[in-house]
């Protein structure tokens, strides 16, 4: 079997959309699964959409996500350069070939002409499309216009007499398009730059791309691409169009309903391996209900046969659950390092050993890394007090007060309090008050951690020590 060659071909518009991350990942997984190559190609021929720093930002997001490419900017390779704005000669050459073959033609219509065409079509209740008027210009007329330097574009001819354009899609099977619905696509714009369609096909051919895996939004463009491959007499790559990403209300995933940039998730403290795992399951799954996959497992299991056609819901609550699982799996040292950027400055006041201990106590409650800041509050705030009205009333009740008073009395008889002797102290409180079980432990937990639920109480007590525990419990005695 010939080597598989996959490419991720983003247009650098400022950031890496999570949909783009999913496309990159599926290309990457397919390449790695088949022992092929993964290529990054920057499609920056739309000069009006240029954004400073966008390419660097995109590459940084891919690096963070662990999607290393084998050929591309900065690495180069046999088919360099991998940035389309540096490959303009290729596109001009092939556009000329199409002109020579009469498969393309110069179009001199101005913006105003096109606008008028659209309005007239709308008035006739027709679909709006280019009506092909420049296809039929007399050769002399074209020559004269070109000689006079008239501004123009180059359009490809769509074969409107053909019964259908058929795309063979690895996910969707045969998809039929009526030629009537397809425009004579512009290939070279009046600024001399190619459009996406020409540059994309030329490069996929020159770079020997075997499989084109991309978002569903590109499916309607594929007939045009097929026509170009046919005009050039080139082999057509395999196509796979990935399902749309949806919000939980099944609308198209949009900025309005949440974050869409990979870097937003990075900044919010999601782990790259979690985001990759989550994004891998947007449209793909295995037969069993496994949810957590390492990159190696994704590579081993990935197949295009198991990518679905229907939209994939981007469910943030599932992402949160997954991130929590990944945080739980980290070793103490790894987690300590990961949390560094999110630790409040005041943590410098304690020894790293103590900080490590505290992190271990609260780690299971972290959904994202920045959550650490408010989890540390209890340990670093000078005089934390109950905020909740319900809990304030609860601690005033008689049995609670009995527990607190007895606890204080017990503490006064010992030198130090730690995880080891805490159990003993609580036993003595139980003996003295006759209160046991939940009725004994919940009051203590509320007084010491200011919440009804949370980390292991003995561990918190161990970090607090006798003085702070005494202080916390005295705080709630009325
Ligand atoms: N440049 C296109 C994009 O921004 C690439 C589409 C394709 O993969 O063909 O998504």
In short:
The chain has 478 residues and is mainly α.
Architecture overview:
The model has no long low-confidence stretch (mean pLDDT 95). The strands form 5 sheets. Strands 3-4-7 form a 3-stranded antiparallel beta sheet. Strands 1-2 form a two-stranded parallel ribbon. 45% of the residues lie in helices and 9% in strands. It has 478 residues and is mainly alpha-helical. Among the domains are: 156 residues, Rossmann fold (3-Layer(aba) Sandwich), CATH 3.40.50.620; 133 residues, Orthogonal Bundle (Arc Repressor Mutant, subunit A), CATH 1.10.10. Strand 1, helix 1 and strand 2 form a beta-alpha-beta unit. The site of glutamic acid has 8 residues, from helix 6. Glutamic acid (GLU) binds next to helix 6.
Tags for this model:
two-stranded parallel sheet, 478 residues, Arc Repressor Mutant, subunit A, mainly alpha, three-stranded antiparallel beta sheet, binds glutamic acid, single chain
Query: What is the number of beta strands?
Result: 11
In whole angstroms, how far apart are the ends? 80 Å
Backbone CA Rg: 32 Å
Quick one: overall form?
elongated
What CATH calls the topology of the domain at 87-242 is Rossmann fold
Task: Give the helix/strand layout.
Layout: E1 5-8, H1 18-33, E2 37-40, H2 54-65, H3 88-100, E3 104-107, H4 111-123, H5 139-147, E4 153-156, E5 165-169, E6 173-177, E7 186-188, H6 196-206, E8 211-215, H7 222-232, E9 238-242, E10 245-246, H8 262-267, H9 272-280, H10 295-301, E11 312-313, H11 316-329, H12 332-339, H13 352-362, H14 372-380, H15 389-395, H16 398-411, H17 419-433, H18 438-449, H19 457-475
Parallel strand pairs: 1-2, 8-9, 10-11
Antiparallel strand pairs: 3-4, 4-7, 5-6
Helix pairs in contact: 1-10, 6-7, 9-11, 16-17, 16-18, 16-19, 17-19, 18-19
Bound molecules: glutamic acid.
């Amino acid at each position: 079997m010939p080597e598989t060659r996959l490419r991720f071909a983003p247009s650098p518009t400022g950031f890496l959309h999570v949909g783009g991350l999913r496309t990159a990942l599926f290309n990457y997984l397919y390449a790695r699964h088949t022992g092929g190559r993964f290529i990054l190609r920057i499609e920056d021929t739309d000069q009006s959409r240029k954004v400073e720093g966008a390419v660097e930002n995109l590459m940084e997001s891919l690096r963070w996500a662990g999607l290393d490419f084998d050929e591309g900017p900065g690495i180069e390779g046999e088919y360099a350069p991998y940035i389309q704005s540096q490959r303009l000669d290729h596109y001009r050459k092939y556009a000329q070939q199409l002109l020579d073959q009469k498969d393309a033609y110069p179009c001199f219509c101005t913006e105003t002409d096109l606008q008028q065409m659209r309005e007239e079509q709308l008035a006739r209740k027709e679909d709006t499309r280019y009506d092909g008027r420049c296809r039929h210009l007399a050769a002399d007329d074209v020559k004269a216009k070109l000689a006079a330097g008239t501004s123009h574009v180059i359009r490809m001819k769509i074969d409107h007499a053909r019964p259908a354009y058929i795309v063979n899609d690895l996910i969707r099977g045969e998809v039929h398009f009526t030629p009537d619905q397809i425009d004579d696509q512009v290939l070279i714009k009046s600024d001399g730059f190619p459009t996406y369609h020409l540059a994309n096909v030329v490069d996929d051919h020159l770079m020997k791309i075997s499989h084109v895996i991309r978002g569903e939004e590109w499916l309607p463009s594929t007939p045009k691409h097929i026509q170009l491959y046919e005009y050039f007499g080139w082999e057509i790559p395999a196509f796979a169009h990935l399902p749309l990403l949806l919000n939980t209300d099944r609308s198209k995933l949009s900025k309005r309903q949440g974050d869409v940039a990979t870097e937003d998730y990075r900044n919010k403290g999601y782990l790259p391996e979690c985001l990759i795992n989550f994004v891998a399951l947007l449209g793909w799954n295995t037969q069993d209900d496994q949810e957590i996959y390492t990159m190696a497992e994704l590579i081993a299991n990935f197949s295009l046969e198991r990518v679905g056609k229907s939209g994939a819901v981007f469910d943030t609550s599932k992402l949160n659950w997954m991130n929590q699982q990944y945080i739980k799996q980290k070793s103490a040292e790894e987690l300590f390092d990961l949390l560094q950027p999110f630790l409040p400055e005041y943590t410098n006041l304690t020894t790293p050993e103590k900080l490590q201990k505290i992190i271990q106590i609260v780690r299971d409650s972290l959904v994202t890394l920045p959550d650490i800041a408010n989890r540390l509050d209890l340990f670093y705030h000078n005089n934390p007090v109950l905020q909740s009205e319900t809990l304030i009333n609860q601690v005033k009740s008689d049995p609670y007060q009995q527990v607190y008073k007895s606890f204080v009395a017990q503490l006064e008889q010992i030198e130090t309090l730690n995880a080891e002797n805490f159990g003993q102290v609580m036993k003595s409180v139980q003996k003295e008050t006759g209160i046991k079980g939940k009725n004994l432990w919940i009051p203590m937990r509320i007084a010491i951690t200011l919440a009804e639920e949370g980390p292991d109480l003995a561990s918190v007590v161990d970090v607090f020590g006798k003085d702070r525990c005494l202080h916390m419990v005295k705080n709630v005695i009325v």
